[in-house]
Amino acid sequence: MQFPERAETERLVLRRPRPADREAWLRVWADPAVWRSLRPDLGREPDLDFAGGRFEHHLGHWERYGFGLWLAEDRETGTVAGWCGPSHPLFVPQLAEEVEVGWSLRRQFWGRGLAFEAAETAVSTAFAHLDVERLIALVDATNERSQRVASRLGMRRVETVEHPEALVEVGVYALSRGEAAAPSDARSGAPPR
Predict the structure, then answer these.
(1) DSSP 188
(2) Distance (Å, rounded) from C-alpha 86 to C-alpha 128?
(3) Residue 34 parent element (H or E)
(4) CA 1 → CA 43, 60, 125, 127, distances in Å?
(5) How far is CA 79 from CA 12, 28, 83, 106, in A?
(6) How far apart (Å, rounded) are the C-alpha atoms in residues 144 and 83?
(7) CA distance 124 to 166
């Protein structure tokens, strides 16, 4: 089954990136708060050459595997707010066969539940279209916002691995297909409706 190149949420359009999206991608990485949450090992100032390499990597991931990160656009303004979606975490060799759901938004879009909205769509779409029994998220120990998103998705921290490039430890959060099929209230700990 072909992975969708586009999905929509209440407030976001999630779509496959195109080469013309490079500048929008770099604007996300250029936000120092985003940079520090993704690559604290590379200093305080964003490295746009590194970010450009990540953009090329994700374009290539779509070509090679038939799925990958989507750009997340604000439905009201069309502004690229960030990205979200599934991909293989090839930078961690022992997890390279897994499918990681990742998310990142520019700071101006924080605090509105948009990361969860996008990630929840990515999780359900990945389970619907990819032959995987579990999804993971890799979250730096200092990234409390992303830890909360992973928890709201029903993911549990199952191990810690060293990020081979960053030389920092990241938590591996996991969600099985069966757990994802449970009602979202049960996953979040909220009382049933």
Answers:
(1) H
(2) 12
(3) helix 32-38
(4) 41, 20, 11, 11
(5) 10, 11, 12, 11
(6) 18
(7) 30
Which two three-digit tokens encode residue 176? 């099985």
CB-facing half-sphere around the CA of 161: CA atoms within 13 A: 17
Pairwise CA distance, residues 114 & 119, whole Å? 8
What tokens were used for 12? 């976001």
- What is the residue-level pLDDT of the chain in tens, covering all 193 positions? 699 999 999 999 999 999 999 999 999 988 888 877 776 666 667 788 888 999 999 999 999 999 999 999 999 999 999 999 999 999 889 999 999 999 999 999 999 999 999 999 999 999 999 999 999 999 988 889 999 999 999 999 999 988 766 557 889 999 999 999 775 544 444 433 3
Whole-prediction pTM: 0.89
Three-state SS across 52-63? HHHHHHHHHHHH
